[in-house]
Design goal:
heterotrimer, A mainly alpha (391), B mainly alpha (166), C alpha+beta (204), B: 0% strand, globular, C: 204 residues, alpha+beta, three-stranded mixed β-sheet, three-stranded antiparallel β-sheet, 7 helices, 8 strands, elongated
Chain lengths: 391, 166, 204
Amino acid sequence: MSETIDQIFVILKDWIMGNVSAGMRPIFSALLSVVPVLVVFPLLFAFTTVLERKGLGRIQNRYGPNRTGPYGFFQPLADAVKSLTKEDIVPRAADQVVHFLAPLLLVSAVFLGYAVLPVGRNMVVADLNAGVLFFFAVGSLVELAVFMAGWSSRNKYSLLGAMRAIAQMISYEVPLVLASIVAIMAAGSLSTVSIVRAQAGYTGIWPHWFVLTPWGFAGFVLFMIAATAESNRSPFDLPEGESEIIAGYYIEYSGFKFALFFLGEYLGMFATSAMAITLFLGGWAAPFSFLTWVPSYFWFFAKLLTMIAGFIWIRGTLPRLRMDQLMNFAWRFMLPMTLFNIFIAGVWHFMPAGFSRWFVCAILVAAPCILLSRGLKQEKKLQVRTYRFAE
Amino acid sequence: MTVSFLILATLTIAGMAAAMSLRNLIHCVLALTLGFAGLAALYLYLGAQFVGFTQILVYVGAVAILAVFVIMMTQSAGPMTRPAPASSWAIGSLVAGSVFAILAWAIRSSDVSREILPSETEATVHQIGDALMHRFVLPLEIIGLLLTVALIGAVILAMHEKRETR
Amino acid sequence: MLGKGLLNGLAETARNFLGSYVSKDRLTTVQFPEERVPPIEAARNFPFLIYDGESRQQGLRCVSCLICEKECPPKCIFIEKSQDKKPDASGKPQFYPAVFNIDVSVCMSCQICVEVCPFDAIKMDVAFELSTDNRFDGLLWNKEQLSKPNEYYRAIHPTEAAAVDAQLAESRAKMEAKSKSAAEARSGDAASPQMQSVSGATEK
């Protein structure tokens, strides 16, 4: 019975495919796989916008939106109506074609990434052999879209925001990919489905999730930090710093195109969290062996919602990082840490199972972490001020 | 010559042709990026998943960005005026046409085009990794060394510049 | 410990988030039209005229001395003195304002009219929800709209009202005592013109 509920969508799809003629089958198969993604994740986006505003509000000792609908949950509808009816202003000096294409490229690239995420058991749009690589390749299209947006507006500040955004995204893409390598090493495959399958076992009641190992935990934390930076979220939201350069690279966009950028940013956040869930948190696997009767897609979305809550929490807590602090952090802490993590995962693989490998790997993770962060801290010794012109 | 191949090939060629002939330099780079994406699609069409995705990751995600950064930082004025067609365009197109003809004849008459490839070739990442670590480990290490040298060289160049401007 | 600041910060925000559901301290929003902040006594927004008793015409304290019109810095008060006299609250016949208009859009709530009024006739109101959809007629208030009873004044500014009432009662008592002694003196011998002190100093 729980098997049926778990596979209900797969069974539904098979039934519909059975009723379709053989010629139309590929199209219908593609449609049936893709349309749910196109429906569910934007709905989740709408839900997240209101959750975020209410969550941030409560963190900041105020109500969030609470006038539209019960407890403000119809706010996304109001936002949708607003962004669709706003006038679409394109600056006269802007590059019309590129200005139009930038949000489209962003949203398309982000939606492409959802093709390799296993939402439940046997529920993935495309089981690619090099799934993780596809995901990162598609993620790198986002940088091009950001550049197009910043450049085509013909606005100094927009360009500045775009340059900073691209620099940040490129810098954090390296730790992102390197942090995911440990999970690939442990599972032995680039296919997301096999990575999840490798984590779906249990010893006793404890799951085999990679996050429960020292290298997996370090990898997860590093991946999440890099994911926050990739989607330009606080504390890494300098490119879109709301109080500084207002909207950075999408400053000249209004109405629906702005909504598309917003959508693209949040969907990117969901996609990278979903990839983190797939790589480290066991995908659709239940946390304890006695909970496997709950359908797999429920666990996936529960984990996704938890990560979204974590993103909102971090956004409400941490101040924004400056550009140089951001870059320092990426190149001088995260990159060496991810490289050490790969080494540690190798050590784990070759040591015999038992307490000793836990101990050794934990030490090996903690030591570079502490040493690197010591190196990152800048001891500001107060110096005597010298003036060039004043005396 | 299936429909999808025709579409991909047209897209790639159109992108590359646009990259040569557009006025605005940034538009040229974006058309070049489209050509890169078309190439990646052709690799995927041939079943080389790893190469295809790496093509996107490296070319579109890094090389194109590098190109636009360079153009952005070195461009002085706005869009360029249309350059007058060079007086030697007749000879140039003749040379290009003859090179294309020679290449096409060479490929068509070689053995490679006559091999019957298995219909489902798939160069999995597993096989590539195996090959890299067993058969091609020496070239891998040499390339790694080369890249390290390049990286160090770039850092030294940048550092020297900083010291000079101090 | 490494990361202590981060964890402390996260703990504080979590405390804020969860605490906002249980304690009012961590959710200080006052949702305006439904809930209101308790009013402060010394607040002021716009002047109003006071009348004693029930009748607006009868009990209006203003005797149309025109001092507030002269002293108003943006000149937003427009008074027309009446031709006849009418007895005021203490029975003495006084002029009264036939027309008393204040332009709401011009008034800057400086309270000078209140400070100079010798009769405690004009005081500051605290109502601030004065929006109207007619910029010209809706924002020129006449005598009917401006006059409010003394009970209202007592309700919004209890301390001030108490002081004013006490002073008015005292001066009235003094006047009555004087008039009684004057009547007695007049009934006694030939009256000498007595200086009548006008009722009391206005307080700030």
